[in-house]
Amino acid sequence: MSLDQYYLLGRSGLRVSRLALGTMNFGTSGFHASYGKTEDESRPIFRRYLDGGGNFVDTADFYTAGESETILGRLIAEAGVRDRLVLTTKFTNSVDPGDPNAGGNGRKHLIRALEASLRRLRTDYVDLFLLHTWDRITPAEEVVQTFDDLVRAGKIRYPGLSDVPSWYAARAQTYAEAHALAPMINLQLPYSLAERAIETEHVPMAQHLGLGISAWSPLGGGFLSGKYRYTEQGLTGDGRLSLPDNPSRKWTDADWRLLGTLQRVAEELDVTMAQVAINWAATQPGIASAIVGASSANQLDTTLAALDFEIPAGLRAELDGAAAPVPESVYRMFTPDYQGWIINPGAKVGDKPAGYQPPVRNWTA
Ligand SMILES: NC(=O)c1ccc[n+]([C@@H]2O[C@H](COP(=O)([O-])OP(=O)(O)OC[C@H]3O[C@@H](n4cnc5c(N)ncnc54)[C@H](OP(=O)(O)O)[C@@H]3O)[C@@H](O)[C@H]2O)c1
Question: For residue 341, how far is its CA from the centre of ligand 1 (angstroms)?
């Protein structure tokens, strides 16, 4: 069973399942209420994940206005699994509109948010504490110093970032390294066959700086399961993306064409489209884990089998090509063809003989 193979998260000693359980839909209040689940509906989803050997669970103070954390806290206590879980939560969103320091990433809110999360989660520490979204205001140094204080105070084991520009993450990590502060080990970002923008900047940055990426919405919120159809009225199908009060991105002709390739690959492998989509995302370069969401334990069953097979190279190339991001502007100069022209006209970068090792410079010579 793939869930009980644990991988190191970023440059750290923390071992996590390659499929994390997302609990954004646990609870029936706030922003995610329209497709939220009650505690009784959430319990079998959580239990199924644990039964499969999963140890990586994701929530945030913002999800269902705090209910996700409250439900999760009760379910964890009920199952008696606090210590074996890698419990992740996040802060940023305002908890008191009108109070300028009750939201964002400044030290005052960061600490207040963590204390409230710990109360709701019924624990005295979280394993992974993430800045949820860049606030465009708080200096990276302030966030990193505060994270380090919280690690030393025993309230968080590891810090990380979600939904930040790559330059901000690079600045934060470099500052932490330069000052021997607790480094970030995780970067949580949107990533799926239908959402590949992070490949340009975030993935190479994370690989160089020791940040393991957790891919959120690896199914595009359900789109890649293949259950939606395009009609004159827009997208239809049985799931949260067709709810009128659930804003999701606009799906383009290219997205609908991508589904055709995904379906062909799934048929050839005799698995579901959802399984191929999750497998692809979880096994892409730089991706440490995919955070999957589920509306029921049965749905999660399908998802949890997503790493029980390998996508052969030929089919993987078809998927890669079906929705590859097109490099724009300066990024065109970082493509293999252009780089080959810079480094060695006529030769392609990557044309190295088998066993090639880059020369090691002898600094004493
Ligand atoms: N850091 C961030 O900003 C951020 C943002 C978003 C999410 N997240 C995290 O990522 C987690 C996952 O996000 P997500 O829910 O968008 O992930 P997702 O895996 O792309 O979508 C999950 C949804 O797809 C549908 N689905 C799942 N399995 C299916 C199957 N086998 N067949 C058909 N439909 C299926 C279900 O919705 P329906 O039944 O309604 O179709 C399910 O809720 C969240 O819970 C949260 O922890 C983080």
Answer: 42
* Predicted confidence (pLDDT) per residue in 19-56, tens digit: 999 999 999 999 888 899 999 999 999 999 999 999 99
Distance of CA 56 to the CA centre of its chain: 12
Residue 164 Cβ inside 6 Å of ligand 1? The answer reads: no
Measuring CA to CA, which residue among 214, 220, 218 is closest to residue 188? 214
The answer to whether the CB of 46 falls within 8 A of the CB of 73 is no
Catalytic residue among 6, 7, 49, 63: 63
Given the CA of residue 296, which atom of ligand 1 is nearest to it?
39
pLDDT of residue 365: 40
Residue owning the nearest CA to atom 22 of ligand 1 = 293
Low-confidence ranges of the chain (pLDDT < 70): 1, 247, 343-365
Structure tokens at 311: 């996508």
356 part of the active site: no
Quickly count: other Cβ atoms within 10 Å of residue 229's Cβ. Answer: 11
pTM of the model: 0.94
Single-letter amino acid, residue 330:
V
Q: What pLDDT is attached to residue 344?
A: 67
Residue nearest (by alpha carbon) to ligand 1 atom 21: 221
22 lines ligand 1 (CB under 6 A): yes
